[in-house]
Amino acid sequence: MRYSIRGPRRGPALMATAVALVTVAACSNGSPSAPPAVPPPTGSSPSGPVTSTAAPPPSPTPTPTPSPTKSYPLSAAPQVVPAVRDHTAARGPGWKPGPGTGVVVAAKDERALADEARLVAGELGVPYRGTAAARPGDVSLALGGQGAPESYRLAVQGGGVRITGPDQAGVFYGTRTLKQSVRSTGAVPEGVVTDAPAKPQRGLMVDIARKHFTAGWIEARLREMADLKLNQLGLHFSDDQGFRIASDSHPEVVSAQHLTKAEVRRIVALAASLHITVVPEIDSPGHLGAVIAAHPDLQLVSATGRTPRGAVDISKPAAAKIVDELLREYAGLFPGGHWHLGADEYVALMSRNPEATYPQLARAATAEYGASGRVQDLATGWLNDRAAVVRPTGKALRAWNDGFFTGGVVSADRDIQVAYWTGKEIGARTPASYLSAGRKLINYNDEYLYYVLGQPNQFTYPTGRRIYQEWTPLVVRGTAPVPARYDPQILGGMFAVWCDLAGAQTQAQVADGIRMPLTATAQKLWDARKPTLSWAEFRSLAGRVR
Length: 546
Prior knowledge:
It contains 14 helices and 17 strands. The protein is an alpha/beta fold. The strands form 3 sheets. The chain has an 8-stranded parallel beta barrel, surrounded by 4 helices. Strands 3-8-6-7-5-4 form a 6-stranded mixed sheet. Helix 2 (110-124) runs parallel beside helix 3, helix 7 packs parallel to helix 10 (375-390) and helix 12 (464-470) packs parallel to helix 13.
């Protein structure tokens, strides 16, 4: 603000103006204290001229005034996706990369964290200096702390950044927050972030069986997922329309367009470097059309001669043999800790009377399980047998919810997690029926989380807005949540891309179409509470950080 003096001022008026200017200057430099009083000059007083001719007393030696310090407002949380769960505000300039900035790691953690450090250094455009001592303005990474898996602490203090976590994944997620904050605002605010995911399983599933996706496309999705702190990529690579990964044991079942094993190893290695587990799925005993095309003798045939697409005859030992050989082959290709066994939509169990429609299955069921054995018991036995093949690898197992049945002679093994996607099948069971039985569940809710190419069967492309505003991991089926007491049993969720009408969209269109729905899903799996940002604000922020 400018102060102008219009014309001559003398005596008290001139002094008042001087005092006012000193006061403004003191306030504008951020000093919290008022300026010292200014004594009136010789020959004047607050009430008028002084007529005494006595000499004025000597001026006291002025007391030095401390230089004012800059005052900062309390910081706000970093602007990132997903939002951090806790931020302790502080006063300070925050942090942004500068000419002298580097990334360093604790000496004891160099082997564990060097890759994370090099990645974030490259993203920030600063050098990685290894185990050198941190300098002002540096980013330092270290393992430590007692938090939950994948948690981290990001402290911005004294001009530098320190990221710690109890495991590599947590430290990595701290670097994602750092990177996104710099992208969104150019800096990271002063203070301390304490962050951890609400759910341990957070992912994207892609049906690469019905539609071929290139290795490059899949790798691009992995990089997007990592920035969103998602940690699982499901690959449904076997179905009726195609079998999309090269096979040594059964090359005859593989589609012309497929991923080579070298490409799969590259995908798995990139995923691991980004703390993402690849979860493979060979669906059976339904959705095996690609296998049946090469082995038509395995086709399930009804009493009337009908041949339902994709269903193998599980009464034939040869059907189990080929599936088990494939499971053993791919178990080594995918070293991660999870495996999807499929088990959905076996056509024999979608008929009103499976025993009458498929008498050979009924005979096999009674032979295996006694007079009370039914086709559902034979299917459950099939699921358990496939689980027994994969279980020695130490992988956690899951199967689609319509592969679990009640009231039979045999039940699905207790360690098989429920991948709940729908309640539209014959004899549909509510999510609570699985949860009340003690099952652990992964949420694939087809009302919110299913992106089905071509939108067949009344599926519509999901919107990020709807997921962001309405869905939480407790909303497992339809739009109603299950009781909150089941929350610990819901391990997380997966956004699923299904390619029923493969030609309906290109790879690029799929990537663009799932962008905001996947972003919203990531937010709700990291923190299921009501978001603080409006949808418009969230969408704008997502555009800045990705």
